[in-house]
Amino acid sequence: MSLLPEEIQRYRRHLSLRGFGPAAQERLKASTVLVIGAGGLGCPALLYLAAAGVGRLVVMDDDRVEVSNLQRQVLYTAADAGRPKAEAAADRLLALNPLISVEPHAERLTRANALARVADCDVVLDGTDNFATRYLVNDACVIAGKPFVYGAIHAFEGQLSVFNWRGGPSYRCLFPAPPAADAVPNCAEAGVLGVLPGLIGTAQAAEVIKLLTGIGTPLSGRILLWNALTMETRIMRLRAVPANLALRELGADEPAACRIQERTTPSPAQAGAAAGGPREIRVGELRALLAAGPAPQLVDVREAWERAEGTLAGSVHVPLGVLGTAEAGPLLAGLDPLAPTVVFCAGGVRSLRALPLLENRHGFRRPTSLAGGYQAWTALQH
Q: Are 88 and 69 in contact (CB under 8 A)?
């Protein structure tokens, strides 16, 4: 596939690069990259893949742009708020490079579409933020024989690797089983340094370009760990587990434990019957209790700045970081440990962590966590 005059003009810095040149640029032009997730990681990766001249970019994301995204999702502007991310991303990428093709799909990767989407590309870039989708990406790539570039971020730290490349390890070789629902908070719960996904997402784009052009050595069998506070990086080795590379069909739906944001929540009765399972209450059930009376006690374990944006009437404020200390005693003094108590946070993760603290340190009898947290509460109002 030869380059057009306008492409020669645009990519001349690549063409003059020793070890890259016209042949590598033509391979980029002939390639298709599937980017799953146009969020913190996907935004910088898409910008650089588009600028580099990847011929066809397929963007999957069923979310819409929110103002809180703009701190790190650099594809979007304030004017994009409310727009589907996939569509807003496509407009920006084509404005950057009209010589490529961008296909937006405002949909989530599911078991119904995963194999078809993955089979239709050369490389997958995983910009997702939940474990359930990452396992689905991995399994579809193993079955289709496609490599995928993995990135993950948390607070000030990031990870990067290449999976399923020429017999190398897969994601399941790194994480054979998903973590518990309350083990890893999402970005909304834990926060993330805005530049961190830019660092990791850009590095993901570099790995994709290496895979497509054949230059350099991909991070297959290695995991790059990056600490943005110290700028220290570390590379760990990872071995392939043959059984993980022999998948012939998509794995069963991952347990509810890995669905931090979209997990199906049992009713309080179901939760109480499940030995050792999380005790949660749905928003609709809590609303019914508050309307019928007597109302349960409410404990807000978010930070003060989160509470300033809104809260549940009558709730007592005890941040999770305070709940395990002596400072919590006076804040909880007005509550009855034996009365029904519902704990809430932003998304339902910190509140699950608060339950054993309330029980073991403060004597509360079987407090309950609000599934989906205050975000779910406000979403049901609109």
A: no
Q: Which two structure tokens, joined as six digits, stand for 354?
A: 């608060």
Establish how many alpha carbons lie within 13 A of residue 303's alpha carbon, considering only the half-sphere containing its beta carbon.
6
Rg over CA atoms, the chain? 23
Q: How far is CA 361 from the centre of its chain?
A: 33
Provide the 3-class DSSP secondary structure of residue 368.
strand
CA distance 350 to 327: 18
Q: Please report the pLDDT score of residue 324 as a whole number.
A: 87
Sign of CA dihedral 247, 252, 253, 258: negative
- Whole-number Cα distances in Å, 18 to 6, 13, 21, 214: 21, 10, 6, 14
Partnered with residue 232 across adjacent β-strands are: 227
Please tell me the number of Cα atoms within 13 Å of 70 on its side-chain side: 11
| Statement: 31-258 belongs to CATH 3.40.50.720 | yes
> Distance (Å, rounded) from C-alpha 123 to C-alpha 147?
6
Q: What is the mean pLDDT of the chain?
A: 89
Catalytic residue among 121, 141, 187, 258: 187
Quote the pTM value.
Answer: 0.75
43 in active site = no
Q: Is 121 designated active site? A: no
What does the pLDDT read at residue 190?
64
| Domain ranges, ordered by start, for the chain | 31-258, 268-379
Compute the average pLDDT of residues 327-333: 94
**pLDDT recorded at residue 155:** 87
Q: Which CATH superfamily is domain 268-379 in?
A: Rhodanese-like domain (3.40.250.10)
How far, CA to CA in Å, does 318 sit from each of 301, 309, 313, 321?
5, 16, 15, 8
- In this prediction, residue 184 carries a pLDDT of 56
Q: Give the largest CA-CA distance in the chain.
A: 77
Mean pLDDT of 6-19: 96
Give per-residue pLDDT as tens, 175-220.
987 766 555 555 566 678 999 999 999 999 999 999 999 999 999 9
323 vs 358: CA distance, rounded Å:
8
Which helix (H) or strand (E) segment is 158 a member of?
strand 157-163
Distance CA 82, CA 105 (A): 16
pLDDT tens per residue across span 258-296? 443 333 333 333 333 333 445 899 999 999 999 998 899
